Amino acid sequence: MALKGINAYRKGNLKEDIANADPHKLTLMLMQGALDRIAYAKGAMERKDYVAKSEFLSRVTAILINLRDTLDLDIGGEVAENMFALYDYMIERISEGHVRNNLNMLDEVIGLLTPIRDAWVQIPESAKQEAYAAQREKRQAV
């Protein structure tokens, strides 16, 4: 019973965080969510709880697809194209790790996504504001 209350509180806080988050923070939350769910999936895999593993990896895949599909290839150029390919690769590895019950494949994705998340945290505020301004200009031009 107490866990339901705690989980409801967490969901409420998450909804509030999402409602108040800027695009940078949302992306960071998605990356962290993917990493958390990979860790949960690994635990489920070790416990042979294949239903939970499947649910967690399905969520990871959805997050990675979202991260990939929200890249702005026009503004981001070669960097965005490389990130697109990297997210595609991570999606493939998650799928293969799921089918093969291979923890090493999941660890590989953790090893690829963690430095991206860490670099994302280090983006200076001025660069974030510049990116938001470029996005606004692009939307207004359309």
From TrEMBL:
SUPFAM superfamilies: Flagellar export chaperone FliS
Keywords in alphabetical order: Bacterial flagellum biogenesis, Cell projection, Chaperone, Cilium, Cytoplasm, Flagellum
Primary location group: cytoplasm
GO biological process: bacterial-type flagellum assembly; bacterial-type flagellum-dependent cell motility
InterPro entries to which the protein is assigned, alphabetical: FliS, FliS_sf
Subcellular location field: Cytoplasm, Cytosol
Any one cellular-component term (Gene Ontology): cytosol
Keyword Chaperone in annotation: yes
Domain of life the protein comes from: Bacteria
Family the UniProt entry places it in: Belongs to the FliS family.
Protein known as: Flagellar secretion chaperone FliS
Lineage: Bacteria, Pseudomonadati, Pseudomonadota, Gammaproteobacteria, Alteromonadales
Name of encoding gene: fliS
